[in-house]
Fold this protein.
Amino acid sequence: MEQTTSTKRWPLAVAWWLVFLSLLGARAATIVQFGMRYAGSDDVLFWNVANDFAHGIFREPYVYGQNYNPALESLLAVPLLWCRVPMHVAMPMATTLLALLPFISFSLWHKRRSEWAAALTFLAIPLLLPVQWDLITTMARGFVTGIAALAVLPWTLNVRSPSWRAALIGFILGTALYLNPNAAIFSLPYCIWFLCGTQQRIRALLLMAAGSAAPLMAQYFSMRFYTTQPWRIVHRIDDWRMEFHPLDLVPEGLQQLGAHFQWLMPVAWEHGAWVLLLLAATAATATWQRQHKVAIAIAAVFPLILFSLSFAKVHDGFRNVLYPYDRMYLAIPLLTAWALSQLRWRMPATVAAGLVAVAATISAYKATHVASIAAVAVQPEAGVPVASWPYSDLVAYGDTVSTVAARHQADLVVGLDGPDGTLHLALCYGGNIVAPNLPPTLYVGLDRRWWRRQEEAETKHEAILFVGGDDALWNRLHDGHPTFEALNIAGETFHLLHPQDLTTAQVMERMGRKW
């Protein structure tokens, strides 16, 4: 986009700040009315990691119990926790910062160059996306970490040395892919654009490969960490989910593009797949403007999408905010903003004023509707492996379990899978945070905290309090092991066991539970 002269700069600068404040206002409302208000069964696992980080405990390179997804949100939340910010506030703040960072960074870079149309475009795109996108990028789930790393990219263009510039870009793109491969949707087009604009392309490509060596080595040693210690893994990435089945899966994906891109289209919120048409139109416009390297770069995303649809992991999702299909394509809005910013067009002050009005209107809409939309989004849905509850309910439940455990002198709380398994999972992972008086916890089925499983293998307890499980399990146990005592408290049934001289592992064996 073309630069704006200094005489026309101040109205656009005012517009930039107003759009920026509108964006911050909308996201602040999302944090307050969703991020701080609800806690998900996966979110509390990141809380657990953050709590350990804040106490100087680093157990493994990825989120506990899996060989992928570094917990960058948890690490970023540590300074907030040190400043006594509550966990349920610090984590959505950290995730939101990571989600918005690339948009703000690209915008600031263009702003410094007086490229106001591009600067405003990068600010406007996240504001023009639906409320559901705001919700997805507020939860601590590792969805936005790779995309956040791309925030450094525009500033590498200020590096004078072509060699250092290429190596830095390679390092940034490699780091983004290490953090989360969903960054590839932006990384590949940007890489092609950069190479097309370089005279010595082979040399630049080799330097980019050299720059990516460090994150690739980090990936290798991280995976090796789990290869040598497989007992740590509960969920793995290198299984059937990454098998390549293009003939079966690509047609299936093309039939449900609306699901895969559900909340990624600006303005036309009910038509997510239209974002592909927007990208295609942008590529066509770039071709008409004879910006062929831009057109080629944008066009590269389409075969990449087809390639990605060949993997079962991409189809592992629901039309659900808590576990959405489009988490795999969350880099699409950033690519859309970048693609539009590359076109040759100016933004007159009148258009900027109109954008400010639209931004303020959408910000106000989001602030007044996020609570109702969030309340619908967190409703339980059959088959979805993730659930969410009001934070206050989780705290109250933790206090209840703590009280019951203290009353019966239970020194271990065991959560079992079953109809309410995700609630008990959340209690086990987040219990020491929301209810400090809760005894040590263990989730049976399987607990991602490998050290808890190891600790309990040979531990003997005076009394164990069980939460969860299903009727079939307890009917069988009460018939064969009458030592289990049922406790009906506040409309919920707990079970108490005095194991006598049995270890926790032996108790689980008698119950027939794999842990």
In short: The longest helix spans residues 349-377. The longest strand covers residues 492-497. The chain has a mean pLDDT of 93.
